[in-house]
Structure formats: structure tokens, C-alpha cells
Amino acid sequence: MPHFFHQENNTESSANAEFDPHPVLRGETEVKAMAHYLKVFSKPLDIMPLPDGMEGDAGRGEELLTSIGCLACHVDLDAKDPLDSDGRSFGEKWIVTDIAMAKAEAQVESMALDGKDASPEEKQGFIDAALTEAKAAYDKMSKNDRARYASRRFDRARRDKSSLAAKTEKFVADIESRDADPLKMYVTPEFVRQGPELSGMGTKLVNDPNDPAQVEHGKRWLYTWLSDPRHYSSYTVMPRMFREGYYQGLSPEEQKKRNDKDILDVSAYLLSLRNDDFPTVPFEATSAHDAEMERLILQLLAGQNTESVSKRILADEKADPSDEYGPLTRSIIAQTTQSFGGTDEAKAQIAALIAAKSGSLKERQKLYFGMKMISHYGCYSCHTIAGFEEATRPGTELTTWAQKFMSQLDFAFFSPVFEHDWAETPDLWSNLYLGGRENPEKQFKHFDEEFKHLIRDIGETADDLISGSGGVIPTSGNVPQEVTYNHASFAYHKMRNPRIWDREKEKKPYEKLKMPNFFFTESEARAITTYVLSRRDAGVRETVKIAYGDKPEGRIARGRELARELNCIGCHTIEANREATIHQYYSEDPSKPDDFKYGMRFKPPLLWGEGAKVQYDWLFGFLNNVEMLRPWLLARMPSFHLTTEDATILVEYFAGLSESEAALLKDKLAPVARHLQQVHSGGAAGGLNPHWFQEEKFADTAAFLKSYVVRHKLANPFEFDVSGASDAAEATSSLNDAYTKAVSRANFISGVFDIAFPYNDLRSHAVSDDRFKLGEEFFYDQKCLACHVGGDPTVPGTTTDIKAPNFALAHKRLQYDWIIKWLQDPQAIQPGANMPQIFQGGNAYISLPEDQRLAKEAKFGKTIDEQGHLMVDFLFALGERKYTAIQPGATDKPAETESSGDMEFDFDSGGEDKKKDEEVEFDFDG
Prior knowledge:
With 926 residues, this protein is mostly helical. 46% of the residues lie in helices and 0% in strands. It contains 34 helices and no strands.
């Protein structure tokens, strides 16, 4: 939510006696009127009753909130960090560490100015020494100060940059056999902004925690919201995290009971989060506010009415006794009629609503004024508000803004013609905001206090944010303005201080600039400015434009936009192995036990290559009817409210990514393949270099390939390091091995991702009984059921320590050819997967003694092609036959008829009957 009020042109110093004598009073009057309008016309919510006999447990609610995936979209600075050995909250751990790192960096920079280098041990000493002071600074911060610090300092760009620096430093330190630089190893967290920060949520819902009625209402509201967000808002992006069918193997009644308990526990925790520094009592309504409201309404009416007519409208006087409504009331009804159906009955309904909720003349005036202010400030551009569903946006059209003439841009007193004024009163013109500067003459002393909140909110460095919270205005944050007479400067300064062009102007209240302040950082403002400057006519005729819509690029663009809107990237790595937001809450410590619920095994799955992996009809159905695929994960896949178009866009997105990546790899590798073919055909004897990566013409290809395999964890950066080579020949040999592996892995991935969208996996997979039995024997021989379940998990003998998905829906979910590739090299398709490579060397029995190997090959086949197809034929038949596989020796295997028939077991729903096409699935990437 951006800031509309208490901006530079709405403070007391911006007052002018003729038009706007009391800007702060005006702002308060506007806010009260808008709140009144929203209250009168808000739709009643049918709040669900709380479950009988159940109470929420705030402690368990905190555990749920930090483990089931809520932190992919929200930040909760007050929640305890499960990975912190000292039991600190995320806020304390993040902010104290960051402050200490900033102070240590300052000390290192100071030493560098004196020509001294600090060792890693000295840097660690600086960090340790700074922690006490950093903790003291943190303790002085209010909740808002902490949220402001975190939102300013912990953005995605900084995390990506620090993460890359840490990986590079570790690599270099290992090569040089030294301790890593602790400052370079510091990876900042990410303050995600998909949903609100939660540490003050209880105050938002319950002003007075000692009022039982408020507490009860807060519980019921949260229960209703978490049970089904669309029950409250038909268009919310918030998904259903707590959905039916999560708890497996239980009756529907017991599942609902557990689901309700989860919701009540999270609700209890959220209600315990207080920010009592926030003033929840509205400012007092006085006669001065009433008089200001009347003055402002008359000023609004004066543009189209005489003074006497304006006063009659203000008094809501009927022009004729036969009129049904007065002009003030009639105006409100006209604004809102369409929201209530657009009929005469709707008008009567609105009139009754006004009479019931805003019956007095003063309240009707406030309702009218609130309506005008919502229109003026454009609140409806972001929010759905009764009466404004089809209102025109109040802002400037930006589609081709960069083509505006300079004469259409109003630089006001910052225009070059006023340069002499800048020199005479520099305090008025030198900085982005007024105040907060050294001023020996103290000409504008009142600015320091009046603009303190604005300067505080543009702070970006740790020192700025700390000093801003401690009552001292941060001076370095209030950067000098550098207004130059061009489009870029105008847009940039508008982003940084939207009211800057009103400085020293005397204007009527509703002629003043009104763009709200988002307090963009410098980099954010520059990014938006760059985008706005790009908004020009295409300059290309329609006949020569490329129609990207039906190409992979078009599908990717549409899907990427939707995936970001839904924040799929908060939980999943989808493109270029970019770390998902939620990964920061998991430990990368390999010494953690296998069942540590915040270990890397419990991260939401990697979706790189999903378009080559799944069958598209299955993915479309899954997105609209989410089922649990990995029961060992604590993070839950929520149910989004996707339209048919949305689900189609996401399916096309994943397919487009795979198609595009396959095409890119083919394009990059084709020249290398031709070169090596010529070398192997005798070209080496004719002078062709067998080490293609040394050729200048392949420099870009070599750089791309190295970056690609390292980024996707298909190779280790150490493999490309030749610093330890004794001579050039050894270095060349080492690089040759690395690039040979890189080419092989890239070729493999190119083949995996080379799909034919949308026509995938249309072949028949009919399997004879004999082949099914042979495949089952091979399947048992590989001990796949040590981690997986193959069918109904309630059948005795199935594994209770499930570490990988169920095989039951492989035939409907996964592409046949993809499974063959997966069995061949799972680590190439999903680096870090727990799935072992059972076909090393192209044969599942390559490591056995020769006599045993030959016996197995005689039965199951000699190659991965034979053995892999046998395995996948069995798995597809297992799902189609609704068969449950039990490892021999585990227990007596049930007859096939016990796990087949009309009932299909759903591992999410507790075993109730399902439609035939809603079977459970398996995903091999455990």
C-alpha cells in the first residue's frame, strides 16, 4: 500500500492561506470520509462458525506456519527460526547479522584506506565484536522499524548477488587452501512481498486483545479466511493452503477435524502477533474536521455551481418537495446504482442503506465527500470498491509516455529558468526531500521534524535505517537531487518523490500532485524509469512483426507472468535453477539427519524440465485438483483458483520452457559436433584442433557451456579449474575432460527436453501378462519399494518410511520416454535427487560378477534400452491394472483382486471412492 498522505505537498509547511490553510487537517478529514464510505458500502461477510469443542494452539500454529509453505509468500519477522541454535526470531537473526556485517565491512574499508588488508580471522573478529552493538540497535527498533529495515535491505537482487559471491568465494578459498572470507560468505535473506508481513497481524484483526468479542470475531474471521480465501474475496490470489484430503488414510470426518485443528492453531498464532506501537484509536473527530469537510465540499462543487446552489447541495435540500432524494443523496445513489444491479429497486436499496448507516446530514456529507476522495485518489485502481467498478484510472497514460514532448512535462520550479532561485535558497532545492541536512543558518529548522518520516522511509543503508529508527534523521539517505531537463530525470525524480514538482507552489488542494509514494529505492526507480522510457510506438509494420503468441517464446512469456503472479517461484525452482524463496528456510548442512524436517530433502520439488516430464492432460487436471504427491514433505502444495485459461497457460509455459531449452542447446552444440566430427574423420592430422574449447571461434560456446552445466549443477566448478596443473598439457587434458562431460550432459538434457507439444505420449502401453510378471520380478530385484509405494499404501507390507512418490499414476502422469531417460541418469535431470543411478554403465547389473551378470541379462535384457523399457512397461501396467506391489518377504502378497476393481485408492482422501480419472500418482524424483 503506497502513501498518499503526509507527503511533501500535504504537510503544514505547504499550507497557503487562500486555498489550503490546513493540509494536515484536510488529510485527516479525507481519510475519515473515505473510511466512512467503505464502511457503509462494504458487503457483509458470512463468517463461518468455529468448530465445536476445539481450541487453537499458538505454539503448534507457529510450527505449522514456518514449515508448511506460508513463508514462500509471507515474512514473519517474529517467528522463531528453527535453524537458529539460539532460538532467535527471523527478524533478530536477519537484522542483527546484517547490521554487524555492515559495521565489519566499514572497518575493513577503513583499514584498506590506510593500506592494510584484513585477514579472514580479523574480519570474523570485527563481526563478532559488532554483534553486541547490533543487538542493542535491534532492541531499540519498533516493529515497523524492523519491517522497514528488512524490506529495504533484504531484496531478491541482493540475495542473488550475495549468493553468487559466496559460492565464488568458497570455490576460490578451497583452491587456494585458505579460510573463506566471512564477509563474502554472508548470504542475505529475502524479504518476500507476495503477501503482507505477519508480525503485527493480531493487532490488525483485534484492536483490544482484552475484549472477548473482538477476539472471537478475529478467530472467526481468520478461520473463514484460511478455510477458503475465496469465501471472503472472489478474486484473491491467496490459495487454499488447508484443503480437504491432506491427511492420508483417515476417514473424511477425521481429516476435516485435523484440517480444522491446523487452521485454528495457525489462527491462534497469528492473533498472538501484536504491534501495539501502532495507534489503533482513530484521531478524534472535531468541529474543525466538520468545518473543513464543508469547506472542501463547497470547493469541489464551486467548479460547476454558483455559491448558493453549492450550499443547497451541501445541505442536501430538495429542489422540489416532490423529489425523492436531495442532490447529495441522489449523487451517491447515482454513483453506486450499477453496483447493486442498476434497477429502481437497487436505488431504493441504496437509499435504505444510506438511511440506516449514514442517516444524519453530517454523515451523508461525509459519505459524499468520501466518494469524491476515493474518486480523486484513485483507490479503485487497486481495490474493488462499490460504485467504482468501471471508473477510469486517474493516472497518466504511459503506453507511449516516452514520446511526449518536453513541453508537456512540468518541471515547475526545477526548470532551468529558475536556477537563480536554487542558489539563493539551496535548502529548498538541493535534496530529494526537504530537511535532514546540516544548516548553519537554520533557515528551515522546522523541516527537520516535519519531513523526518519521508527521509527515514527512503533510507537504504544499514546506518540510515538504524538512525531513522532512533530518532535521528539519516542524512545520507536524503540524496542530492540531480534534476536535468529530460524525460529520464523527470520520471526518476517522480518515482523517488512523487510530489517534488509541487515544491514551493501554491495550489488548490485538488490541483496538487497526488501520485502516492512507494518509497522506491534508487535501483527500483531506475528500473521503472528504464521501462517507462521504452514505451514507444513499435515502429514496425504489422506485416513484418513476428507472431510470438504460438511460439515457445510466447508461451513462456504468458506463463512466466502468471507463475510470478501466483508466486510459483516462491516454492519451486523453475528456470535456470534460480533458487526459490522458500529455500532460505532450509539447511544445506549435510551433517543434519535424514529426517530433519528443514533439511534439503524436504524442499518443494524442482520443476526444471517439467514440460518434458509430465503428460499435459494430467498436469492440467492437477493444477485444478491438487493431490498430494510427496507425503513426506511438510510444505504443502496449495489449491489455486485457476480458470481453464490459467491452467492452460501454465501447461504451455512448462512445455515452452523445455522446447526452448532443447532448441538453445542444439543450436549451441551443433558447431561443436561438426568440428569434432571433422576431427574424428582425420581432420586432426590436417591441423584441426581436437580441443575445440581452445579455438577462438568457440570462445562464446565454451563460456556458455561452462556456465550452463555449473548453473544447473551438472558439473562442479572445480572441474574447470586448472590452476593446479603442472603444465599446459595437463591443463588442456583436465579441461578436455570437463568439456567432454559438459557436452555429454548438455546433449543428454537436449534430448530429454526435445518434446513435441502438445502431442506427447500417445502410444499404447498394452503389456502381456508374461511381460508384466517379468517386469515385476525385475522391479523387485531392484528393491524400488525400499523408498516407494506401488499402489495402495494401506496394504500390509508396503513401506511405512515413504521417501519417494507412489508409482500408481506413473502411467497417467509421466511421459514414457522421460522415465527411460530418468532411469538412465536421474542426477542429470534433477541434480541432488535421492534416486540412485541403477543403470550405471548402461546396465543394472554391470557391477555383478560375470556369471551372475550374464544370468540376469539373459532374463531381463543386456542394455538400458531393454531393461528400462521392461521396468517402465511394468510400472505403466501397474497403474492401469490398479495393482499393489509388495516386496517379496515383506508380508504375504495380496491377491490382485484385493487391490483392483471399481474402487481407486486416493492417497490424499483417506480412501473414499473417486472418479475413474482421479487416481494417485508417482513421480520418480524422490
